[in-house]
Amino acid sequence: MKFKGTAPPWAHADNHGLNETVGGAIHGGGNTLCLVMGKGIGKEQATANAKLMAAAPELLEQLIRLRNKIADYRPDDDDHLDVVDAAINKALGRE
Known about the structure:
By secondary structure, the chain is an alpha+beta fold.
């Protein structure tokens, strides 16, 4: 399980010089990865979405690490690793 996108860290920049409904920009690897627009949701919600996107690579990395620890200590049917694996696979584009 390896993330093939731009390596973390990613960062959120609040103001990208666009209209007031923009949620900012996500930067990683010295590049602008995306601009987060807030059409229909407004700046506050768009900014919250952008901050979650900026944290995504590190969240994924830690989810994979914790998933593997749980599998080592609790390999049973009640560990819900199938749900965790589905989320990881979705993030890695392997749905």
